[in-house]
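Appendix B, record 7
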Amino acid sequence: MTGTLLTLGHGYSARALARLLQPQGWQVIGTARAAQDLDRIRQSGVEPLLWPGEDLAPAVRRATHVLLSAAPTDAGDPFLPHVAEALSQHPPAWIGYLSTIGVYGDHQGGWVDETTPLTPSTRRGRLRVAAETVWQTLAEQADLPLHIFRLAGIYGPGRGPFSKVRSGTARRIIKPGQVFSRIHVDDIAQVLAASIARPNPGAIYNVCDNAPAPPQDVIAHAADLLGLPIPPAYDFDTADMTPMARSFYAESKKVRNDRIKDELGVDLLYPDYQTGLAALLNAETAPDQPPGG
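Structure tokens (predicted):
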């Protein structure tokens, strides 16, 4: 199966999906917000599209599949007003919307799944709920094959704890009972590809690994892998943190991922942070090694 994928917001996760699909013969079109990013996108084999700037309708008409991966603002989803008409007139075979597990809010370390009511406690979570809702409304009105993917904390090449541990700036923030769920970017890509191969319009999927864990454990394990001292621990209540950093600790929950396994048949490349961090470290010394290799 091949087609033309349009990524509205050609960011970290979208680039991972493109890398997975291109060797299979897929054409990929990706938007960039800055002109200086166009060459970088083009060099990766993706057709770049500057937006805001260019008309998105021709790309929508060409696309067989569309990935929506832009963060909403107070004004709503940035792309929806500009593509709603074209999508309604030329429905693709699959639409994926990248959301966040932040829509579930705080569950004090308890488990959530895709049926859990949405009770976000942060501004980011509330904006995501609003964006999910408007896309679902459009999908119902125009009979569009929308799939929602609620992503856990993303890590992968260039995004991980190693640089801070090496530089000595990593800290272990201790908040009793705090747990986070995570997902390697290559596993996001394979979940999206599995959904493309097995579409189920209206479906919602949690995209996370099997092992929610306290953030301080991840930092300590990264230090162990590097053979460096474990970074110092600080109590959350008294730690010097930016409001943004502190907001990440406002919610604690463990997220179930049964649906991506049972419905999509996904076998995670990195089922826990231990395997994911080990693979990242190995890739630093073997950069040509393929994902999951």
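Remarks on this record: The chain is about 35% helix and 20% strand. The longest helix spans residues 123-142.
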